[in-house]
Write a structure and sequence with these properties.
heterodimer; A: about 80 residues; mainly alpha; 4 helices; B: about 250 residues; alpha/beta; Rossmann fold; about 15% strand
């Protein structure tokens, strides 16, 4: 599975949304994710990709594309 | 109150209120992690009592003042019982003295165990709780000293007051996940902690209690059990269990 598909699957599972509807430009605001949703998503990403995401990096993550880009740059 | 299939962690469960709480939770069907810091023998006894009644219990040593030991505590709970549903932050110490005579280490130790210990356990239990996505119950032991202040307990009262504010905040942060966070504020309860009081002080205290007696550990444990097994709509509250004490 590509990083893009993996990330989309984690987002879909964590935030309980339809994975097929997630586009790169989909923001977390679009899918009504609150701050704790983002924290839970980050925890799942940290576990899956075995990395630590800082609070500052979390602030820069606004869309599905941001996550894919970020994970791609770290793995 | 059926807690069958649920796991509860009780910190400081070898004696006093923690011990009574561990036994009550186990009687309701919960698998209980009996945490202790120093008194292994007493913890072992609590485990024996629970097991002799047909309940499930394991003892785990951890000093709640130490973050990494709290991480291990949560991991042990999952290793033993595969999940965590209920956390009772009960571990606490006193180092009483008038502020004018209070040593820095007496201040620090009480804050480290009674306040930072609650942070350490809540922080480390969150990952498993959120991952399970099945809610949770956190009950913190505050004190009437944290509500009203108490002469000779500036350190203890400050820590317990902090626990109350922490409880209310965490309840707000976790409400959407059906994780309820409440505090119980015992008055004067007959435990080793209050056994240190002189007879004279005890008599003075009892005069201020409408019920005319000190409380028992079980008086507090039954309220904790109620909160632990409730639907969770009570959250962010502080429930005094003090026999109507006038401070």
């Amino acid at each position: 599975m590509s990083i893009e598909d993996k990330v989309k699957k984690i987002i879909a599972d964590q935030l309980e949304v339809d994975g097929d509807k997630l586009k790169g430009e989909t923001t977390f605001e679009d899918i009504d994710a609150d701050s704790l949703d983002i924290v839970e998503l980050v925890m799942a990403l940290e576990e899956e990709f075995d990395l630590e995401i800082s609070d500052q990096e979390i602030e820069n993550i606004k869309s599905v594309g941001d996550v894919i880009e970020y994970i791609g740059s770290k793995t | 109150m059926n807690l069958e299939g649920k796991t509860a962690i009780v910190t400081g469960a070898s004696r006093g209120i923690g011990r009574a709480t561990a036994i009550y939770l186990a009687r309701s069907g919960a698998a209980v992690i009996v945490n202790y810091a120093g008194n292994r023998e007493a913890a072992e006894e609590v485990k024996q009592i629970i097991q002799s009644e047909g309940g499930k219990a394991e003892i785990v040593q951890a000093d709640v003042a130490d973050y990494s030991q709290c991480e291990s505590l949560m991991q042990s709970a999952i290793d033993h019982f595969q999940r965590i549903d209920i956390l009772i932050n009960n571990a606490g110490i006193t180092r009483d003295n008038l502020l004018a005579r209070m040593k820095v280490e007496d201040w620090q130790q009480v804050i480290d165990t009674n306040l930072s210990g609650v942070y350490n356990c809540c922080r480390t239990v969150l990952r498993p709780l959120l991952k399970q996505k099945s809610g949770g119950r956190i009950i913190n032991l505050a004190s009437v000293a944290g509500l009203h202040g108490n002469t000779g307990q500036a350190n203890y009262a400050a820590a317990k007051g902090g626990v109350i504010a922490f409880t209310k905040t965490l309840a707000k942060e976790l409400g959407s996940r059906n994780i309820s966070v409440n505090a119980v504020a015992p008055g004067f309860i007959e435990t080793e902690m209050t056994a240190q009081l002189s007879e004279q002080v005890k008599a003075q205290v009892i005069e201020r209690i409408a019920l005319g007696r000190l409380g028992k550990a079980e008086d507090v444990a039954e309220v904790i059990l109620f909160l632990a097994s409730s639907s969770g709509y009570i959250t962010g509250q502080v429930i005094p269990v003090d026999g109507c004490l006038v401070m």
